[in-house]
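Researcher: Here's the sequence for the chain we discussed earlier.
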Amino acid sequence: MDFLYKARDAFNKAIRLNSSNPDAYLGRGIVFDDLGKPEQALADLTKAIELAPKNPVAYKRRADVFLPNGSQRTGNFRLHEGISNSA
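Model: Thanks. This is the structure I predict for it:
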């Protein structure tokens, strides 16, 4: 699990260098999800979507965060939102 903390630190640095980089927020959001920190994951994945609204991966990963946390309805809505926006 040490590699996740190293990845988080690398994404933190990337965001400090360029806070408009959607890929850095996407990556850090995925890391936060893998670390079991859904609130931080959702914040970063939402930011990635704000910066790159046509990126279906960010929508899919955000939906994935909702689904295991008992919010299937929200997860499904967010997934459909991503499909609509990336078309």
